[in-house]
Amino acid sequence: YHIDHFRPKGRIKELDKTFREGYWWLAFRWENYRISGQLLNVKKSDLFPLNGGNPAICCNDNIRDDDCLKLESPILLDPCISEDAWLISFYENGEATHAEGIDNIDEFRVEKTIEIYGLNRVKRLVENRMDKWNECLMEILSYQNASGPQPLKQVLRASAKNNLKKMVRYESEFSSVALSCLKRFAPDSLYNQVIN
């Protein structure tokens, strides 16, 4: 894994291939660091395009810098912002896509994030997501198809429900893929039990 800056410190490459000054004043701020896979980080490089192209201005004051950054409109989704994380969803084949029901601006941001990070470029990553999807789907089907005497049926459903809860935990690998599968295929009653 790489640890790198979300907002590049040296220089910024825009979508039109022009460059501007980087966020040098954030070089040592821990809030600007993100853990990334090597291939995704190399693909991103210095790209950090903005909607409207209005970069934050350095104030050399941590409190005011944070306020300046809140006024910025990055195109890249920030995995540390939960509202951004909810914008991505996944297909059954493991490919990343935008969540349903989002506006055109957020849809554009998701598409550019997928393109810039190459989220569908690494075959093994896509395959791992597909495996997680299938694992989740099997648990949903196990829940729905539980049969036999009532006590056995309750045990089988409880087991499937607990496995699904583990899959969608924030700290679980590919939890967002499992959540996408759960949203798409689980009956509302199961979805509500797993999420709540």
Description:
The protein is mainly alpha-helical and about 200 residues long. About 50% of the residues lie in helices and about 10% in strands. The strands form three sheets. The protein has a two-stranded antiparallel sheet with strand order 1-4. A two-stranded antiparallel ribbon has the order 2-3. The protein has a two-stranded antiparallel sheet with strand order 5-6. A hairpin with a 5-residue loop joins strand 5 and strand 6. Helix 5 packs antiparallel against helix 6. The protein is elongated, with a radius of gyration of 20 Å. About 20% of the residues are buried. The model has no long low-confidence stretch (mean pLDDT about 90).
Shape: elongated
Give the beta-strand count.
6
Structural class: mainly alpha
Between the first and last Cα atoms, what is the distance in angstroms? 32 Å
| Tally of DSSP helical segments | 8
Q: What share of residues are in beta strands?
A: 5-15%
| Mean pLDDT score | 89
Strand line-up in the sheet with most strands: 1-4
Which regions are unreliable across 5 or more consecutive residues at pLDDT < 50? none
Radius of gyration: 20 Å
Order of helices and strands: EEEEHHHEEHHHHH
Could you describe the largest sheet, including whether it forms a barrel? 2 strands, antiparallel
Helix content: 40-55%
Task: Quickly list its features.
two-stranded antiparallel sheet; 6 strands
Task: Give a short summary of the structure.
The protein has helices at residues 38-44, 62-70, 82-85, 104-117, 123-144, 150-168, 175-185, 188-195, and strands at residues 2-5, 11-13, 19-21, 33-36, 88-90, 96-98. Strands 1-4 form a two-stranded antiparallel ribbon. It has a two-stranded antiparallel sheet with strand order 2-3. Strands 5-6 form a two-stranded antiparallel sheet.
